[in-house]
């Protein structure tokens, strides 16, 4: 899990020496050889709950059986820790894992600029071709530096039983309908929406959706391409969010709630019937399945896309999404690319689909999806007019961090819609 953090930066120079010392002992990348001449590949991923950790563990074991000269050491970390500190610090310290999670867009551009990543085109061209256009977010200047194993869009995971209890007979297709449903749920004594604002990025994604549906496609392209935030729609997005927060749609204490850790997280609240819905990526069903007493995805769970905003310039059929990918460190052994190709093989992609953890990027593997909601998301993705990458991913580290900081301040009642855009504009001057 997608996922999308508030501070995706490397350690400050004052702590770089400490980070280097700590990470030198835990990453152990660059294909360390043991006394018997075997190559050890370290692999960091974000699977810590649900069925996916077991899938990756088995992948590592099976790859080692097929490649006796290789030892694969895979480790799962919480998404926020991985993206926010562990990977940036390891890269900055010069001792990254060989294979690691990457989220594409501006983040990949930054890593390529710093010469951290291995070009993959000459090593596994057929694997790159197999995922089609979904690989675009991990390409820089015509070269490929990461391959997504999952790609999907964000929407609302909701409890059908609680909707029925509140008298809601159909899912909302406009923002006004969503607001009306929030009122119905509150009147029925039900917490309408859970948000893990304690992890920052889930709060930021609310603004992303309002921006997506407030700004025209051309304006979105100008923003992500040249950091042009002059259109009033960017401020409108913040005002829309402020108005929505004003109807009190979220659970008590949402500013301190984690997103995916424990039964009390936003995902856990929905999974255990304590809130009606959560805005989250396509991976969320698998996460919820790991947070229930029986460790199963709730039968009441269903999904619908974020509704359009009537009268706004945004395309109601546009969707917001991203993928999870793996990249090889620049100095990793060639076996790292072989492991990545194995992970992306139709056989493994089908196992990923069967686990219910997300939507695989290899098209022939999508037939193995067993979760009805993931089938709906895959179909909705295919019908989208276009898919906008999560904005922090698209903008890159500096602008993305500034934007997310402004959004979280708005959630906390400490900032304005204009402040968000001002922070983005100021940060953009440092990277242009």
From TrEMBL:
Domain of life: Bacteria
Signal peptide location: 1-24
InterPro entries reported for this sequence: Bact_solute-bd_prot1 (IPR050490), SBP (IPR006059)
Presence of the UniProt keyword Signal in the record: yes
UniProt-listed SUPFAM superfamilies: Periplasmic binding protein-like II
Pfam families: SBP_bac_1 (PF01547)
Alphabetical UniProt keywords: Signal
Keyword Signal on entry: yes
Protein name in the entry: Extracellular solute-binding protein
Organism of provenance: Microbacterium protaetiae
Lineage: Bacteria, Bacillati, Actinomycetota, Actinomycetes, Micrococcales
């Amino acid at each position: 899990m997608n996922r999308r953090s508030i501070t995706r930066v490397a350690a400050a120079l004052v702590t770089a020496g400490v980070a280097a010392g700590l990470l030198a002992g835990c990453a152990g990348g660059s294909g360390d050889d043991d006394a018997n001449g075997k190559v050890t590949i370290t692999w960091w991923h974000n699977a810590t709950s649900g069925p996916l950790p077991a899938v990756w563990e088995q992948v590592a074991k099976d790859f080692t059986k097929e490649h006796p000269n290789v030892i694969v050491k895979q480790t799962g970390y919480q998404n926020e820790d991985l993206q926010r500190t562990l990977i940036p610090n390891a890269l900055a310290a010069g001792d990254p894992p060989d294979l690691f999670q990457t989220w594409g867009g501006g983040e990949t551009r930054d890593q390529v600029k710093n010469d951290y990543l291995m070009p993959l085109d000459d090593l596994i061209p057929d694997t790159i071709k197999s995922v089609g256009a979904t690989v675009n977010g991990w390409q820089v200047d015509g070269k490929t530096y990461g391959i997504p194993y999952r790609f999907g869009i964000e929407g609302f995971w909701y409890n059908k039983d609680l909707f029925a209890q509140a008298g809601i007979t159909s899912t909302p297709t406009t923002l006004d309908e969503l607001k009306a449903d929030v009122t119905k749920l509150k009147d029925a004594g039900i917490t309408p929406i859970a948000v893990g604002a304690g992890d920052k990025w889930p709060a930021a994604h609310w603004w992303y959706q309002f921006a997506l549906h407030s700004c025209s496609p051309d304006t979105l392209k100008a923003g992500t391409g040249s950091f042009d935030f002059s259109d009033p729609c960017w401020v409108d997005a913040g005002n829309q969010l402020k108005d929505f927060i004003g109807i009190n749609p979220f659970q008590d204490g949402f500013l301190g709630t984690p997103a995916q850790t424990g039964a009390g997280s936003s995902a856990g609240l929905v999974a255990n019937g304590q809130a009606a819905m959560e805005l989250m990526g396509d991976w969320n069903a698998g996460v919820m399945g790991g947070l229930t007493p029986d460790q199963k995805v709730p039968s009441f769970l269903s999904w619908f896309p974020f509704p359009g905003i009537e009268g706004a310039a945004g395309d109601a059929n546009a969707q917001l999404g991203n993928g999870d990918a793996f990249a090889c460190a620049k100095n990793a052994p060639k076996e790292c690319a072989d492991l990545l190709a194995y992970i992306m093989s139709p056989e493994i992609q089908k196992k990923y689909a069967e686990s219910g953890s997300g939507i695989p990027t290899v098209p022939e593997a999508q037939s193995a999806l067993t979760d009805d909601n993931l089938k709906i998301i895959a179909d909705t993705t295919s019908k989208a007019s276009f898919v906008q990458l999560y904005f922090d991913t698209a903008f890159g580290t500096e602008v993305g961090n500034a934007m997310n900081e402004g959004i979280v301040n708005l959630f906390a009642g400490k900032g304005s819609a204009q402040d968000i855009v001002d922070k983005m504009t100021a940060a953009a001057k440092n990277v242009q």
